[in-house]
Amino acid sequence: MFEHLKEITYKKEDEFLSQYACFSKNTKGRAVFEDPCPMRTEFQRDRDRIMHSKAFRRLKNKTQVFLAPEGDHYRTRMTHTLDVMQIARSIARVLRLNEDLTEAIALGHDLGHTPFGHAGERTLNRLSGGWFHHNEQSVRVCDIIEKEGRGLNLTFEVKDGILNHRSSGKPMTLEGKVVMFADKIAYVNHDIDDAVRAKLLKIEDLPQDDLKIFGETATKRINNAILAIYEKSNGKNFVEMSEPAATAMANLRKFMFQNVYNEKAGNTENERADRLLEILFDKFLNHPEEMPPFFASLLDRYDTKVVVCDYLASMSDTYAINLFNDLFVPKPWVVL
């Protein structure tokens, strides 16, 4: 009865999208078949599922870079995700790619990220033996952990984009490549703002030649990055950034990793977060039955280390801190 509504979207895509875009009607589909929605395309359905997931809501209390900031204006993992989504859609629009697919990938790309940001991921990677990576965990969240084990049953293209959003990834769609660029553009530019706000660095500390090329404000840097991608990629079967913006972007990213993201860069709470997660990891590795029932139920199918990482990665910063306090911090008592 309402199938014509979705056909309108298909027709718009046929008329507007680049020949190199991923068309909604051509999706490879889901691992488990579902009856189609009469109004929404499959990528639109994925976007909605991600936005309504528990994992997405928890991003609001997960660190982006700075642990337990007192100011209201520091980025969280959720605001970072929204930044990535906005930048990615802007790039997709000018390149005439599928904005719905791009938006779904962007919203889901960090669902599996740990509490305490980069520090938390490094800790779980170390404790797991080197196999924990947040992009892979994001797919695991979508497939196994969400909806008490039923998963979100996302389309192949969305999961591929989530899995391959890191620099080493090779997404199969241009929309996935767009999110890869948008992620870097977002975290480099916005993390500079937060690092300056936290007095971890000054604008003068940044490589000035690159700053002049790429832009001296976040707005200019983001606009120049999008225009540099458009200049190099418009009408092409690839997504790349033109020079000299690409070099300036790479230099600023390298600077941020050396001076902000790395564990010895001056972010003083990282060591405490590492110890907190390690203590929780050891606790549940030795007593996995004390995890919540859903995670304990996964022990029948997966190695204990894997499930403990599932549990810890799912935590928000506040949940992890409160759990640690409940388990290991003495409670005051009064004799009446």
Task: Identify the notable features of this structure and list them briefly.
336 residues, mainly alpha, Hypothetical protein af1432, 16 helices, 59% helix, globular
Layout of strands and helices, then pairs:
Blueprint (H helix, E strand, L loop, with lengths): L2 H14 L25 H10 L2 H5 L18 H19 L3 H10 L8 H12 L5 H12 L10 H8 L10 H24 L10 H7 L3 H16 L11 H17 L8 H17 L6 H5 L6 H11 L2 H12 L8
Helix pairs in contact: 2-5, 4-5, 4-9, 4-11, 5-8, 5-9, 6-13, 6-15, 8-9, 9-11, 9-12, 10-12, 13-15
Description:
With 336 residues, this protein is mostly helical. The model has no long low-confidence stretch (mean pLDDT 92). It is built from 16 helices and no strands.
| CATH homologous superfamily label | Hypothetical protein af1432
Give a short account of the largest sheet: none
Query: Which spans of ≥5 residues are poorly predicted at pLDDT below 50?
Result: none
Helix content: 55-70%
Mean pLDDT rating: 92
Spell out the helices and strands N to C.
Answer: HHHHHHHHHHHHHHHH
Number of domains: 1
Q: In what range is the share of β-strand residues?
A: under 5%
What is the level-2 CATH architecture name?
A: Orthogonal Bundle
Number of helices: 16
Cα distance, first to last residue?
Answer: 71 Å
* Strand runs, count: 0
The level-1 CATH class: Mainly Alpha
What structural class should be given to the helix and strand makeup? mainly alpha
Q: Indicate the radius of gyration in whole angstroms.
A: 21 Å
- Here the CATH topology equals Hypothetical protein af1432
The backbone outline, from C-alpha atoms, is globular
